[in-house]
Amino acid sequence: MEMVRIDVGQRSETVRRANLSSIARELHAHGPLSRSELVTATGLTRSAIRGLIGEFVAAGLVTEERAAPLGTPGRPSTVVRLRPEQTVVLALEISVDSIAAAIVGLGGVVLARARAERPRGHTSVDDIVADLAALVAELEVGHPWRQASIGIGVAVVGVVRRTDGCVSMAPNLGWRDEPLGTRLARALVTTDRIDVANEADLGALAEHRRGAAVGASNVAFISGEVGVGGGLIVDGRPLTGAAGYAGEIGHIPLDPDGLPCRCGSVGCWETRVGEEALLRLAGLPEDGGHAAVDAVIRDAEAGDPRAVAAFEEVGRWLGIGLAGLVNVLDPELVVLGGRFARIHPHIVGSMAAQLERRALPAPRSLVRVVPAELGVDAPLIGAAELAFEPFLSDPATWLAIRAGRPQLASA
Ligand SMILES: [Zn+2]
User: Fold this and answer.
1) Distance from C-alpha of 126 to C-alpha of 105, rounded to nearest angstrom
2) In this structure, what DSSP letter does residue 249 have?
């Protein structure tokens, strides 16, 4: 058995590439691992692991060191550790209230991060791109990243065409068909690959890789901010749809005679569970923002009946929509992110009651609904994960570039 695996590994360039990818993914997801743990995790032989790790070491991407003996007989296993600063991505985020940038090393190590508040409302793509470039310039002073950069990931509060980073629609920014990826490349003066995606999709990816949904294969992530976004993981993979538009769950039409929605339709889910709905129910101005939401939380905690009722009503509509998602998707986990994570204790009762009443018993009995773990940075962390993906899928190409060799053709 072992002989066959080694033989195939040595013969086939395709297999070598896949094996390098498996090792990179294990180290990226789990941090330092012993060679023995890598053998177990990848199913590769010890000698195959040794050879492949040697390639990463030669390129300067990982180090190997002897683990301290644990008092057990035999040789201590060698621990393989990524060098995060050697392989980095630039992660950017454009959300309703802020913009953010981070330099993130392989393994998900945040080396530098900055966030700047921005006023709500329509802003030109040129202004936002200029502000992001200024934020990156600040980070760059202490953390030169370009030499080690393998790509740029961008989370944006809008509907994105993944193929070219064009933002088809971002009602909160007032954008329509804006070529964000191209503009960023020019402003950052870079030829690095730039991947742009919807911020809720990337929040889902981040929670799946590093947060509340680690290990789960079927996940619905629902993020409440001003609007309501979502990201779906189906059989371990993000559901993107034909062009990357999938997951706009805030715009499921739930209320045919309801309020007008920012998207142009009427009675979308977010008109019942979004921030404006909560503030309206609590008797506050709809554009009160985070400060007003905080006030409703404080009032509810003090027992104010109007605030308590506002949360119950939002929770009720959240449960109604969730019942539909559970029936359609059969997720093992629903992760409530963004503002929903903050208000989770206040809405969980009425939400659970609707789920109990409306979801089919079989999928309902399997699903857990939990708050997100990564907080406000989830989309930024997801943007980094998006940018790491080409490297993780095919580290061999990058190893060849690092070694200054011509790239090897895929077999
Ligand atoms: Zn809508």
Assistant:
1) 28
2) G
CA 264 / ligand 1 centre spacing (Å): 6
Return contacts of 307-314, CB within 8 angstroms, 24+ apart.
307/282, 308/346, 309/281, 310/278, 310/281, 310/282, 311/278, 311/343, 311/346, 311/347, 311/350, 312/347, 312/349, 312/350, 313/281, 313/350, 314/272, 314/273, 314/277, 314/278, 314/281, 314/343, 314/347
Compute the distance between CA of residue 389 and CA of residue 382 in angstroms, rounded to an integer: 11
Ion ligand 1, residues whose Cβ is below 5 A away: 251, 261, 263, 265, 268
Using CA atoms, how far apart are residues 223 and 4, in angstroms rounded to an integer? Answer: 48
40-46 long-range contacts, CB within 8 A, separation 24+: 44/5, 44/9, 44/19, 45/2, 45/5, 45/6, 45/9
Whether the CA torsion 257, 258, 259, 261 is positive or negative: it is negative
The 10 Å Cβ neighbour count of residue 354 is 18
The residue behind tokens 């180290």 is: 27
All residues at 6 or more sequence positions from 255 whose CB lies less than 8 Å from its CB, including other chains: 266, 267, 268, 271, 272
Ligand 1 center to 270 CA (angstroms)? 7
Beta-bridge mates of residue 89: 104, 151
Two structure tokens written together for 162: 């993944």
Q: How far is C-alpha 299 from the chain's CA centre?
A: 32
Q: What is the pLDDT along the chain (411 residues), one digit of tens a residue?
A: 445 555 554 568 899 999 999 999 999 999 999 999 999 999 999 999 999 999 999 999 999 988 766 666 666 678 999 999 999 999 999 998 899 999 999 999 999 999 999 888 889 999 999 999 999 999 999 898 999 999 999 999 998 988 889 999 898 899 999 999 999 999 999 999 999 999 999 999 999 999 999 999 999 999 988 889 899 999 998 898 888 788 889 999 999 999 999 888 999 999 999 999 999 999 999 988 889 999 999 999 999 999 999 999 999 999 999 999 999 999 999 999 988 999 999 999 999 999 999 999 999 999 999 999 998 899 999 999 999 999 999 999 999 888 764 433 333
- Dist. CA 250 → ligand 1 center (Å): 7
Q: Please tell me the distance between residue 151's alpha carbon and the centre of ligand 1 in angstroms.
A: 33
Q: 230 near 249, Cβ under 8 Å?
A: yes
**381 Cα distance to chain centroid:** 6
In the numeric block, the tokens 């940075």 are attached to 377
> Which distant-in-sequence residues (6+ apart) come within 8 Å of 48 by Cβ?
5, 6, 9, 19
Parallel, antiparallel, or unpaired for β 228-234 and 219-224?
Answer: antiparallel
